[in-house]
Design brief:
With 233 residues, the protein is α/β, with parallel strands linked by helices. The chain has one domain: Alpha/Beta hydrolase fold, catalytic domain (Rossmann fold, 3-Layer(aba) Sandwich), CATH 3.40.50. Helices cover 35% and strands 25% of the residues. Strands 1-2-4-3-5-6-7-8 form an eight-stranded mixed beta sheet, with helices on both faces. The termini are far apart.
Length: 233
Amino acid sequence: MSETPRQNTSFPRPDGGTGHGYLELPPSGRGPALVVVQEWWGLTEHVEDLVRRFAADGFVALAPDLYGGRTTHDGEEAARLMQELPVERAAADLAGAVDLLLGHEAVTSSTVGVAGFCMGGAFALTLAAQQGDRVGAVTPFYGLPDVDATPWRDVTAAVQGHYARRDRIDLGVVHDAFGRMRGVGGRPADRPVELHVYDAAHAFVNDGGPAYDPAAAATAWARATSFLRAHVR
């Protein structure tokens, strides 16, 4: 373990437990709601920085702490933490975060946006499927849940994906997943499914990691924030 995550808020989970996370308000004090879902390293300083950046761009942004205070920068340990994470508890933390934001006095939207990175990209799409119309838009970055096990028909949010060409994730599988979401009957025209692929490696937005790509990160960030503003209402 390498750092202690900063938690500044707590919230009830639907399973009766208590979730914790890092919340930031925009400079105006009010804005649309956004759940930020951590990478497999935990609620690190990088994830806190993402929350602050989203807040600076106008969102009421909350990153739930899915690992309960644990973080790491060791790949083997991160893999272990992810494997040991009870899916039901993570789902409860994320659902509790949605509840907190939609009831928060600073939130101006009736839906939430979800932005997830790495492991969080997979959880972001899963959360969108679980929460249905409560999620207005979801922007997964280089993460994907099990394609065959995910109920894509339940992802009614607008979707904008950001994936890397040089990644361990098979782009064929990514295209399959996005094709399934586009192919769901009855999807409203104002809830598009977009996919952007960058000539970069996994975790290209993480400015503290070896794969950081400033140009790809800047382009993806501008696209994602514009998309979220347009669809989280």
